[in-house]
């Protein structure tokens, strides 16, 4: 029996999220309503698509087969709409961007606000989470990453390099022994990531410096920066974050200077979507410019008098 696209769209969400609640949040539908729709779909197909348990919804063999066909239909729908001419150069609709919270807190607000100002019909959602986003499950339309993924059907574009240095509050430095070499860090309180919550090897800065104990830790970059600003200790901070963090300065810049990169990651199926491509280009241009602007502002801050 032929199924309409709406049935397949809901089915794909449940199959990818493996739960009614997860799919319901994604689709903004009540889980009970979604459950009834899945039961109706199974009845119309006269087959069982899911094995239901307290752990969630797992696909049966028939469900896996339908998922493959539904994903082909999804790709065909995207391909059919990608080339539809628009009546205006402006972007419209909703676009969701996933990003680690450093980029989400210090860069994306300015960049996305500027894009939205030029496109009044556009709704931009920023999902700030300290983890890798799963674009296959459509957690976001695109994501910013700190390393280039090597698995999955993804399109990866390097956007820009960014820099990090050790930093501390003037108040902390005034009350503690001088830091003139990396070895001096052993006698200071360190601020950094919670070790078992580092979601990308590129973020394990302190381990590379031989720091064992992290006295003040958070999985959030912005929380770490606030800890540093409050005189909590010494930590590695993004240069772009320090432009908006008065009372904090970089230290040991000649000895410790880290460089990382931001990557824009999109699902391969979306490469022909003109709307998402236009937004991705605007986002990449904005991120490069804003990172450069803030890093220049940080580098230009006056050094304290000896």
Automatic annotation (TrEMBL):
<dbReference type="InterPro" id="IPR058163">
    <property type="entry name" value="LysR-type_TF_proteobact-type"/>
</dbReference>
<comment type="similarity">
    <text>Belongs to the LysR transcriptional regulatory family.</text>
</comment>
<keyword id="KW-0805">Transcription regulation</keyword>
<dbReference type="InterPro" id="IPR036388">
    <property type="entry name" value="WH-like_DNA-bd_sf"/>
</dbReference>
<keyword id="KW-0804">Transcription</keyword>
<dbReference type="InterPro" id="IPR000847">
    <property type="entry name" value="LysR_HTH_N"/>
</dbReference>
<protein>
    <submittedName>
        <fullName>HTH-type transcriptional regulator GltR</fullName>
    </submittedName>
</protein>
<feature type="domain" description="HTH lysR-type">
    <location>
        <begin position="1"/>
        <end position="60"/>
    </location>
</feature>
<dbReference type="InterPro" id="IPR005119">
    <property type="entry name" value="LysR_subst-bd"/>
</dbReference>
<dbReference type="Pfam" id="PF00126">
    <property type="entry name" value="HTH_1"/>
</dbReference>
<dbReference type="InterPro" id="IPR036390">
    <property type="entry name" value="WH_DNA-bd_sf"/>
</dbReference>
<dbReference type="Pfam" id="PF03466">
    <property type="entry name" value="LysR_substrate"/>
</dbReference>
<keyword id="KW-0238">DNA-binding</keyword>
